[in-house]
Specification:
Rossmann fold, NA-bd_OB-fold, binds adenosine-5'-diphosphate, OB fold (Dihydrolipoamide Acetyltransferase, E2P), 24 helices, seven-stranded parallel beta sheet, binds magnesium ion
């Protein structure tokens, strides 16, 4: 990073305080961050002869309106608008869903440009964009950015242009020329130019290839540098504890452990006893019982005279875990504390003091745990739950609060082993591949949108039994305004439907963190009976009283994500249900729904998901449990990830990397991420 890239966005001509605030809202503060902000898709205005366009392919068609638009409503809020259009020598039909207001705007004989999916059999375009006037003259590929109002995609394009004109020349290239040559990668300046202003698809492809490699290489360098750090510390913590007390704890548990739990506990305890630092990933489907495994490990640490920390992504989850652990440890003399940003004042002081004195054995918390001022007397075990929610750096900071403590990372998302190793570095992997006995399978149904009122009746039946329900609406990155609207609409429908009888809550990404916590809490305390939410509803949240999971527009989700959502119910004794509302058009879409109704096994679903995923289909990376990247997709771009991993390993173990000017750019990036601590690595 150089100085130009670190200037605030207001350094760009034409960006004032207001625009800067809007940019900050989507995580862009500096010129460098602005230029790095990648479009999530591109619109291609190159027109093709319709005869050459394949079924379901995306097209841009310019033509004249040939018939007055026809508007029909169906369901409660759904509408379909259609008109005939004369495009070149073809008379075709254009259909727009849920945009009734277009009717007034479409005039006979007017020239319009439609972008959408071509249905070859019906000679119809299912339009997702309709523009008045002819298609742009350029055969240009236009970037589409994910924005939040008041920003628009148009503004974003303008800002990029201004930023690039002013700062393009100052974009530093961290990749040494030798590496660039070896893989024929374009330089950074050219890559960002092509990312924002591509002239051809090929340019774009080359730009992405280069950016993905750089991103993966830096990630892998961080991982490898960390490994060096961990190796350099001569030895990890040796936990030595009384086997007797541990087995009496195990036999006092309120249930019999599954064989998988026994096996995994054995693997973890062996690591803990050994002087080698544990670095283990624990995968287990939702409900497979990871918490008790964590508890046993924490207990072993406490018996050995060490402290243990369990870090989770949200406050509610932290409180839940603290509660379950307190129950499990009720008959022991283990002391547990909770540390989140809500623990304030005197109470906080007391917790911090006791952690430092060592009178607290186990602390459960959020990222509050990794703040400065949190000090342990003898931290011996660090566990993270839903580990993909934490960055490499956050995990490192927590780890460094102890002296080479053992590390266990838990995730509910099944990740194929080879992929896990590549994506997370060399770690050991344990798998909980067995569900506790007697667990009722969540019954899963697939229904169509027109059956929504029956779904509402079904929910009501469960509510009358005192149970609760989730209704999830998809979050589409493309327009988060529309999304939220989706959730808001469904929410108001339900409020209307259940008026005076049940409390309906609403949760979406536009709420502040505080508001989200408040809604979640009300739901977990059964003051809200039905929670309508976008997918921000937290992974790992445990409300055992909820027995219905309704997923609206389910075809929009990947299988892995549907499975995660389904895992929010079926956590208590009562039979639970998952209802997928979807009208998928494609065969793959239908197949997805069928698989969901038939399969309860997360690993099977994860594999099917990969199978059904086309190249470039970014479905599901978000919740896949893999780290999130700006440009690359660890599954789709797996081969680049592998190459980057090999290169990174070579680099960190070469003296030249730590010394030569050619690598200064890469070193600077590592330093900026706080990973590089010169002293320790020398
Ligand atoms: P997850 O792996 O999703 O974190 P939890 O640890 O929250 O799962 O466990 C889900 C539920 O199953 C909890 O209520 C827990 O008490 C229970 N449980 C865990 N292990 C067993 C077991 N061996 N037998 C019966 N119930 C169990
Ligand atoms: Mg859990």
């Amino acid at each position: 990073m150089n100085e130009a890239m670190q200037q605030p966005v207001t350094a760009v001509k034409g960006i004032g305080e207001e625009t800067a605030a809007a940019l900050a809202d989507i995580g862009i503060a500096t010129v460098g961050e602005l230029l790095a902000y990648a479009p999530y898709r591109y619109d291609d205005y190159e027109q093709k002869d319709l005869a050459a366009v394949r079924h379901e392919e995306k097209v841009t068609v310019e033509g004249k309106v040939y018939s007055a638009p026809l508007l029909t409503y169906y369901g409660k809020k759904k509408s379909r608008l259609s008109f005939r259009m004369l495009a070149d020598r073809y008379l075709i039909t254009v259909v727009c869903f849920n945009r009734p207001y277009l009717k007034e705007k479409i005039a006979l004989n007017e020239t319009v440009t439609v972008i959408g999916k071509w249905d070859r059999h019906r000679q119809t375009i299912n339009a997702y964009e309709l523009r008045f006037g002819p298609a742009p003259e350029t055969t240009g590929i236009e970037p589409v950015y994910s924005v939040r109002s008041p920003l628009t995609v148009k503004t974003m394009r303008r800002l990029m242009k201004a930023a690039f004109e002013q700062f393009g020349e100052h974009i530093p290239d961290p990749l040494p020329p030798a590496l660039r040559r070896a893989y024929r990668l374009v330089d950074k300046q050219e890559a960002l130019r092509a990312l924002h202003f591509p002239r051809t698809r090929e340019e774009l492809h080359q730009a992405r290839r280069r950016l993905i490699y750089e991103e993966f290489l830096l990630y892998q360098l961080k991982m490898q540098a960390l490994r060096r750090l961990m190796r350099d510390e001569r030895r990890g913590v040796v936990h030595s504890f009384s086997e007797e007390r541990l087995s009496s704890f195990l036999s006092g548990l309120p249930f019999v452990l599954t064989n998988a739990q026994r096996r995994v506990i054995g693997e973890i305890l062996a690591d803990m006893r050994s002087p080698r630092q544990m670095n283990r990933l624990l995968q287990g489907d939702v409900g497979s019982g990871k918490t008790v495994v964590a508890a046993v490990a924490l207990y072993a640490a406490a018996l050995s005279g060490f402290q243990g920390a369990l870090m989770v992504p949200t406050e509610i989850l932290a409180e839940q875990h603290a509660r379950s652990l307190a129950e499990l440890f009720a008959d022991t003399d283990v002391t547990i504390a909770l540390l989140t940003s809500s623990v304030k004042g005197k109470q906080r002081k007391a917790v911090l003091a006791e952690l430092e004195e060592g009178t607290i054995d186990i602390v459960v918390g959020t990222h509050a745990l990794i703040q400065e001022g949190v000090q342990f007397r003898r931290l011996g075990l660090v566990i993270t739950d839903e580990q993909h929610r934490f960055g490499v750096e956050q995990r490192r900071v927590l780890r460094e609060k102890g002296h080479a403590p053992d590390v266990l990372m838990m995730t509910a998302t099944p990740i194929p082993r080879t992929l896990a190793i590549t994506a997370f570095g060399d770690m050991d992997v344990s798998v909980l591949d067995e569900m506790p006995a007697g667990r009722k399978k969540v019954e899963t149904y697939w229904v169509k949108h027109h059956q929504f009122s029956r779904v509402l009746d079904f929910i009501e039946k469960e509510l009358r039994r005192g149970h609760q329900a989730y209704v999830i609406c998809p979050l589409i990155e493309e327009s988060d305004k529309l999304d939220v609207q989706n959730a808001i609409d469904v929410h108001s429908q339900l409020v209307h439907y259940y008026r005076g009888k049940y409390e309906i809550g609403l949760m979406h990404g536009r709420l502040s963190a505080d508001e989200k916590e408040r809604v979640m809490r009300a739901f977990s305390e059964n003051r809200i009976h039905v929670l309508v939410s976008t997918t921000v509803v937290e992974v790992g949240v445990n409300v055992p009283n909820a027995t219905v999971m309704v997923i609206y527009d389910a075809e929009r989700f990947g299988l892995a994500q549907l499975h995660q959502l389904r895992g929010r119910v079926g956590r208590g004794d009562a039979q639970s249900y998952c209802i997928l509302i979807a009208d998928p058009k494609s065969e793959v879409g239908k197949e997805r729904m069928r698989i969901m109704t038939e399969t309860a096994d997360g690993f099977v679903l994860a594999e099917k998901d990969l199978e059904l995923r086309g190249p470039g289909d970014f479905f599901g990376t978000k919740q896949s449990g893999l780290p999130e990247f700006r440009y690359g997709d660890p599954v789709h771009d797996y081969r680049i990830l592998e190459v980057a991993r090999r290169d990174a390993a070579k680099l960190v173990s070469s003296a030249a990397f730590w010394r030569d000017e050619a690598y200064a750019g890469l070193r600077a990036e590592l330093e900026a991420s706080g990973i590089l601590d010169g002293e320790k690595l020398d």
